[in-house]
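User: Hey, quick favor. My workstation is busy. Could you predict this chain's structure for me?
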Amino acid sequence: MTPARVLVVADRDVDAAMIEARLRSRPDVRVVVGSAAALARLVEEHAPSAVVVASTPARLASTLATLTDVGRLPPVVLLAADPHAAWTPAARRAGVRAVLDRDAPAEEIVAALTAAAAGLFAVHPDVFRAPQPALLDTVADRMLTARELEVLEMLAEGLSNQIIARRLQISTYTVKFHVASILDKLGAGSRTEAVTTGVRRGLISL
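Assistant: No problem, here it is.
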């Protein structure tokens, strides 16, 4: 089995080195380390299957802006001091598909990388701070895909299928398919109810 190439970038060199040390113990991962400032070049040169980003709270906004500016960015796993605060619409729009604690072990990071590659999201339990056991079971069982979450966020903006299609550069038929899947997974009877349910579950914010 060919090891997955993973690009590791961090605000601080010490954080990048610690993450690299954790992941190098895994034979199924090949690690490339670089700076966030050189992210676009590193992605083009190494074609990683995923990017692991470690950011401090003070630099998170600028880090997300850097991610957003990179074209064709692979799935991003974000390591943050406060996963709850880091799991935002801005992060998801920047390509973040998983948020873990900054001290997450290699096993958790690799599991998140696998989920992200499959189009799923992986988040630290702190993201769901409100105790809703039954609700969390439903979310785990019927997880929205990355594309479905993008569509749900646009539904929250009140956008029509036609506008969503133009923004995502897909057909309106595909948008209808995603909307139907979102309603089914969230057990919603309307677009408004789907948005309300998504907000209540912490999938999106208004």
